[in-house]
Amino acid sequence: MDAFNLQARLKERQQQHLYRQRRTLEGAQQPEVVLDGQRYLAFCSNDYLGLANDPRLKQSAIEAVRRYGVGSGASHLVSGHSAEHHALEEELAAFTGRQRALLFSTGYMANLGAISALLDDQSAVFEDRLNHASLLDAGLNSGARFQRYLHNDVDNLASRLGKATQSHKLVVTDGVFSMDGDVAPLNELAQLCHDQQAWLMVDDAHGFGVLGERGAGLVEACELDQQQVPVLMATLGKALGCAGAFIAGSETLIEALIQFARSYIYTTAMPPAVAAAGRQALSIVQQEPERRLHLQHLIRRFRHEAEVMGLTLMSSQTAIQPVLVGSAARAMALSASLLQQGIWVTAIRPPTVPAGMSRLRITLTAAHTDQQLDRLLHALERSWREVSDHD
Ligand SMILES: *Cc1c(COP(=O)(O)O)cnc(C)c1O
Question: For tag attachment on the chain, is the N or C end more exposed, with fewer CB atoms within 10 Å?
């Protein structure tokens, strides 16, 4: 008996070269990793500022464990809301220039909670078609009229908004797109939303900590305030090196989420030690702008030298630097060849990206050195030649 057709479905996945497997890390998240017993130089982490293994974050977490123990013990509304959570929320609100911020246990839950709390069957939601899966899932499950607009196409969105008859309209976009590395035209989107009386929600998971003069993200770089972007979401698991996420916005928005966001209400609060580490990370983001500057330097160098090598890059100025390779099989061959040279880069295939648009998704971090970037570039050149010879 193959209940629910599971065996058949798994076999089909395998035949399509789309079967996914996990690799087991035997140490901290950092450029030099140990994977299944072997050492590799990794270019696939979202730890953009190199904070996941920072001694100061570890110390903050350890001290908080001594004081608060490990588990939070309950949801925020029951008895799990600690002083560390509260202080982190206040610091996030101040840093992003919003009235308040609300912590969620993951970014997926923040998006699900916020979107479903705002929308009902009388509203309409408009999403960029390349939005993160958590935003698309949330929109689809919200009960609202759901539409996707063409990627970063403000005119396409405008014509859809113009035709909508619902009185409550929410436009949702990634700040930095996670598979392409390009950024949303936030100023134009904010203007359009203002004109059309829609609310704009920005998921800045890949911009927060990295973009903007102070590291407050793409919304800071675009100088957009709480009126222009009423719903700001960012995560603490990427550049901040921790885990969890938050929504920032008006007093009214946050109170409404506390009352109505089911993924906030019905789940255990993140461990207080994670919040304590998050506070430490937030302070480092503000005090060490040199991390952002070094990352910008590596991005410019990578783009210049990869272009000289003739690789096809995408229009990304962020830490996400995809190299387009075409077929899923070719992407897998390149990634395997790089692994043999001790370089770990993930191949991204359909259905995450469209067919024929498979890519190596290279991510750079402030923890990488110039020498490590040299190693990546040399290995890429060699693997590219090897795989092209086999074509
Ligand atoms: C990673 C990510 C999320 C999910 O955040 P988690 O904290 O990992 O659940 C949401 N949106 C975007 C754009 C992301 O890249």
Answer: N
